[in-house]
């Protein structure tokens, strides 16, 4: 049995799911790593926004520590960073580019970047406008983990010089997202933080159907929606649904809507964590259209794709038995390929395949070789 690996992740947030999709992604991945017998430390910048909304301050599947600044980070955790088998810095981490410089200078193990916002990141890098990653750092990484697959990986290698780009999609925690036998409260629902680019799609695929179907019930859950939005009377608004209530939220819907950020649509192959969560909960899904979706959840077989309000209205009129068969197929696919445990196995395989940069290859190749197989499940 290969020894357990020691992995350090510096990400946006693990402790708070408020207003971000990073926390639930990291939770599923880290729980998966623990199930496979590995150790992880998650280091999170202590910022007021997340400190005031922590829903997981003491996880039981990894170590979690907070730091106030980069000096304190290296003082308190520099030795752990230096000695880890792999150090992974995530997107949107405050002062992320400066933090990555420190990791490059001190980490003796594999150095990776986990981009949970890949199309947004690459667009920002083209404009020179991101503070959490510098373009010059990409070729220095041993591994670039991307929330987007498909053609984006070729762009990362060809245009940005990534040496080892690998897709590492979001995942669902298979133990916490499951169908619940609850009364139906809403005919169609949506869960997501407000964003300017998603709002026109939400308007077209949920608010307009709500106006056309005043006898049906709709819900939009998530923070940061402007007060200026004119919600139809039959659309309920919920400011926040914590992860512990996600399964109940999805299970109370007849149909759930998936809406994707514009940069993710343009890139393709960029599933959101909400897509997999909804599927794991067994709720029928209607989604906006983007390249690569059909490869993950086949259209007509595992979900419906809607381009206009008429398609959503038709989906709401579909016989329940038909939509539930499709939902069951989506759940089977997600539980087979897109769980936290499955994703943790993919991460271990990516770490095994990564080769340290030339300057460190001589001393690091033995350690990389030791990663060639995951530890046995515990």
Mean pLDDT: 93
Question: Which CATH top level class of the largest domain fits?
Answer: Alpha Beta
CATH architectural grouping of the largest domain: 3-Layer(aba) Sandwich
Largest sheet: 7 strands, parallel
The percent range for strand residues is 15-25%
Shape: globular
**Order of strands, widest sheet:** 3-2-1-4-5-6-7
CATH superfamily heading of the largest domain: Glycogen Phosphorylase B
Give the tally of β-strands: 13
Helix content: 25-40%
Q: What name is given to the CATH topology of the largest domain?
A: Rossmann fold
Work out the radius of gyration. 21 Å
The computed structural class is alpha/beta
Could you spell the SSE succession in H and E letters? EHEHEHEHEHEHEEHEEHEHHEHEHHHH
Number of domains: 2
Count of helical segments?
15
Distance between the termini: 12 Å
* Poorly predicted residue ranges: 368-378
């Amino acid at each position: 049995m290969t020894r357990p690996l020691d992995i350090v992740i510096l990400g946006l947030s693990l402790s708070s799911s408020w207003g971000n999709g990073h926390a639930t992604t990291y939770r599923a991945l880290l729980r998966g790593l623990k199930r496979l017998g590995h150790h992880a430390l998650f280091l999170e910048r202590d910022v007021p926004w997340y400190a005031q909304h922590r829903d997981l301050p003491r996880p039981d599947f990894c170590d979690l520590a907070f730091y106030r600044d980069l000096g304190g980070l290296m003082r308190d955790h520099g030795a752990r960073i230096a000695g880890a088998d792999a150090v992974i810095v995530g997107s949107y981490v405050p002062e992320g580019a400066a933090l990555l410089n420190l990791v490059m200078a001190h980490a003796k193990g594999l150095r990776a970047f986990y981009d949970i916002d890949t199309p947004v990141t690459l667009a920002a890098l083209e404009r020179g406008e991101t503070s959490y990653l510098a373009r010059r750092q990409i070729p220095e990484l041993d591994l670039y983990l991307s929330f987007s697959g498909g053609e984006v990986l070729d762009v990362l290698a060809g245009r940005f010089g990534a040496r080892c780009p690998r897709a590492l999609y979001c995942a669902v925690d298979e133990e916490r997202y499951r169908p619940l036998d609850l009364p139906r409260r809403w005919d169609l629902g949506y869960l997501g933080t407000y964003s300017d680019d998603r709002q026109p799609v939400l308007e077209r695929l949920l608010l307009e159907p709500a106006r056309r179907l005043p006898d049906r019930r709709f819900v939009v859950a998530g923070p940061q929606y402007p007060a200026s939005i004119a919600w139809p009377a039959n659309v309920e608004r919920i400011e926040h649904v914590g992860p512990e209530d996600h399964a109940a939220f999805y299970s109370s819907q007849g149909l759930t809507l998936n809406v994707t950020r514009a940069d993710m649509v343009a890139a393709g192959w960029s599933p959101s964590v909400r897509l997999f969560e909804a599927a794991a909960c067994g709720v029928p899904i209607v989604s906006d259209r983007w390249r690569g979706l059909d490869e993950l959840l086949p259209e007509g077989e595992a979900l419906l794709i809607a381009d206009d309000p008429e398609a959503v209205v038709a989906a709401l009129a579909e016989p329940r038995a038909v939509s539930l068969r499709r939902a069951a197929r989506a759940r089977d696919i997600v539980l087979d390929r897109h769980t936290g445990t499955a994703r943790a196995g993919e991460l271990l395989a990516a770490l095994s395949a990564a080769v340290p940069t030339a300057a460190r290859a001589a001393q690091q190749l033995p350690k990389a070789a030791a990663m060639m197989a995951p530890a046995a499940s515990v």
